[in-house]
Write a structure and sequence with these properties.
Layout lengths: L8 E7 L6 E5 L5 E5 L10 E3 L1 H11 L3 E10 L3 H9 L4
């Protein structure tokens, strides 16, 4: 992750359960993106998603957990957040 994307604060809106969580994050401009463990949660390699997809597919069908209120995290700290908060690694 390079440039300004590394210092942005994003809002974590939802995460998938399991060993390799997928996060749905809201960027400062309001766009939603799915970011993946396998990419180190790199925003450059994220997939843009819509609010409807988050509600109907991710949360509605695939057991994603909504983060309410959304958690604000620096974009370059997403992997640390997952390890510490979701995977409970030291």
């Amino acid at each position: 992750m390079g440039g300004t994307a590394a210092v942005e604060t994003v809002k974590i809106r939802a995460n998938s359960p399991g060993r390799y969580p997928i996060l749905v994050v809201e960027l400062p401009d309001g766009e939603l993106h799915a970011v993946y463990f396998e990419t180190g949660y790199d925003l450059e390699r994220a997939k843009r998603v819509e609010e409807d997809w988050l509600r109907e597919n991710a949360i509605g069908r695939h057991s994603f957990v909504e983060v309410d209120p959304p958690r604000e995290v620096r974009a370059d700290s997403l992997l640390d957040f997952v390890r510490r908060e979701l995977l409970r690694e030291p």
